[in-house]
Specification:
- By secondary structure, the chain is α/β, with parallel strands linked by helices.
- The chain folds into 2 domains: 91 residues, no CATH class; 266 residues, Rossmann fold (3-Layer(aba) Sandwich), CATH 3.40.50.
- Helix content is 25%, strand content 30%.
- Strands 6-5-7-9-18-17-15 form a 7-stranded mixed beta sheet.
- The longest helix is centred in the middle third of the chain and has 14 residues.
- 37% of the residues are buried.
- The model has no long low-confidence stretch (mean pLDDT 92).
Length: 383
């Protein structure tokens, strides 16, 4: 409360004779009940030659000559002078971040959002961590990427492709709707995607739900709906994920399904919580996973996971699965509504970019950049 408008920060760096200290004493007394005594002490923070830190008292104000007694409560507050600037610059992840923003596709399992709104939010959240971020605005542009053509002269290899359409995957018309169709299904398209991810060393990101469960193209599938009234898409079911994993593992196309499991509530691991604190991204520490993948896929498809949640019932709720030969899949097997903070955390745990913290320091002779304020409170009449 004292520092709501930075008044405390400005005062503690002023000379002890400055009248601002009297104003601070008046405000502090007005904030506290009349039977509470206080002592506010300000310390300079000094780093000694041997590396240890020393706290040297700079000033103190109190409303009690006899102190606050032995039975008291204290709180500390670290302040930085207003003419010092701190900056945090993230290390840039090598490669391009592609965010699918296709105007001719519909999403599923992203209740409350559109893919386009999610694309905008993910752009704002993750673009500072990448050298280049490109929005893929149509299924035609996605087809160009899959064919090896950069959209804006960016680096194509080692990219991240973020699918914002939930359980649906945009599919370009033409080659991919013809070559990607077999056995009465578009699961072969997912197999082709798996091959592309492997050969380009991409990381394909599914932000929520059952990956590759539908294909979507609002022009090509204009009269087709997914059995839930959402037109412009067609169901592939678990065959999409099964075929993608076979493509990623460089196995021949085979019409194989891959199941998921509803494992209920899961909890972020200690490693994930550590990364939350490091990057300042805080999803809820517990989530509901209805699309968890079995750990058996690790040995079946030569995958190594970077996991977000503690495993439950031999299933993995969310992870980035790195293939031995190249490429990776980030699968966030949670129930809707999507939380993009979980997706961001998954990528940052996998790539682990460093945060570079820098300080524009003061000129020689100026006051310290940081001071420690300790406020001690006691009750009048107490021991």
């Amino acid at each position: 409360m004292l520092d709501k408008n930075k008044d405390l920060t400005e005062t503690v760096f002023k000379d002890p004779a400055d009248p601002s200290w009297i104003d601070l004493e008046i405000v502090l007394s007005a904030c506290l009940p009349p039977n509470i005594v206080h002592n506010l002490t300000v310390y300079d923070i000094v780093t000694l030659p041997d590396g240890t830190v020393s706290y040297q008292a700079a000033n103190s104000i109190t409303n009690s000559e006899s102190g606050v007694g032995t039975d008291s409560e204290a709180a500390s507050y670290l302040v930085t002078s207003t003419n010092v600037t701190f900056m945090v610059a993230p290390q840039k992840i090598s490669g391009t971040l592609y965010i699918l923003n296709c105007s001719d596709a519909n999403g599923w399992w992203i209740t409350g959002y559109t893919a386009q709104s999610l694309a905008s939010d993910l752009y704002n959240l993750l673009s500072p961590y990448f050298q280049t971020t490109v929005l893929v605005n149509s299924t035609y542009q996605l087809g160009l990427l899959l064919d090896g053509t950069a959209l804006k002269g960016e680096t194509l290899r080692d990219a991240v492709i973020m699918n914002t359409f939930g359980e649906a995957v945009p599919i370009p018309a033409g080659y991919y709707t013809t070559q990607g169709y077999a056995d009465g299904s578009y699961a072969k398209y997912a197999w082709i995607l798996g091959q592309k991810v492997n050969s380009y060393n991409w990381t394909w990101v599914s932000i929520v739900g059952y990956p590759f469960y539908y294909v979507t193209n609002t022009v090509f599938f204009a009269s087709t709906q997914n059995n839930w009234g959402i037109y412009g898409m067609r169901m592939v079911s678990g065959y999409g994920l099964g075929c993608f994993l076979r493509g990623l593992d460089e196995l021949p196309y085979s019409y194989r399904s891959q199941s998921t499991e509803d494992i209920g509530v899961v909890y972020l691991s200690s490693a994930a919580l550590d990364r939350c604190n490091y990057y300042g991204i805080y999803p809820a520490p517990y989530q509901t996973s209805t699309r968890a993948l079995p750990r058996t896929i690790l040995s079946t498809y030569d995958l190594t996971p970077t996991e977000l949640f503690y495993r439950k019932n031999n299933h993995i709720a969310a992870a980035t699965y790195r293939h031995t030969g190249g490429g990776a899949l980030t699968a966030i097997g949670l129930t809707r509504i999507p939380d993009i903070r979980v997706t961001a955390l998954a990528l940052l745990m996998y790539y682990r970019p460093i945060l570079y913290k820098s300080e524009f320091t003061l000129r020689a002779g100026e006051r310290p950049t940081q001071r420690l304020v300790v406020l001690q409170l006691g009750q009048q009449g107490g021991s």
